[in-house]
Amino acid sequence: NLKVGRTSSTLSWSREDRLTVLGAVLMVAATAVVLPVAMDHHASVLLGYDVPWWVMILPFALGTGIELRFRVGTSLLFVTVVEFPLVIGFFVTTSRGVVIALVLGGLVALSVLRYPVTLLAYNASGFAFECAVALIVFHLVVTDSNATEIRGWLGSVLAMMTCAVAGSVRNAVLLLIRRRPIDRHWVSATGVGLTVAAVNSTIAFLALRLVVADVRLVWLVAG
Question: What are the beta bridge partners of residue 79?
Answer without folding.
Answer: 2, 68
